[in-house]
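Need tokens for this chain, all 138 residues.
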Amino acid sequence: MEPSKALRELFDQHEALRVSMDDCEQLADEVDQGRGDVRTLIDEVAKLRVAFGEHNRFEEQVLRPILRELDAFGDVRIEHMFADHVEEHRALTRSLDGPTAELRAALYQLRAHLVAEERYFLSARVLHDDVINVESSS
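Here are the structure tokens for all 138 residues:
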């Protein structure tokens, strides 16, 4: 997959996750105010967990080969991403199982996670279709 196409798909997935998080937050507000259905909130959080899991699998599958080929820093990016990043995904997924106060904290962390991904891994500066070769001096 071309880096620019992967970038577009990952940004689309991030947007869908943000919409789902907003829905979860709205439903949590309604539950906290005594006018919402807990089952509806549980179902929406389950959908968010599934979407986040699918996004993470896609991201891990697509980014590794792209980052490796882009430039001389590919292996460093991969090491960083797959050392800390994957564990962060697991922790965020686990944190989506709780009462509304914990859910709000998890949604806050997930939003911050998406922003960090977009800054460090999913930028046009990093994911571009041109391969950059760094020549070594001999």
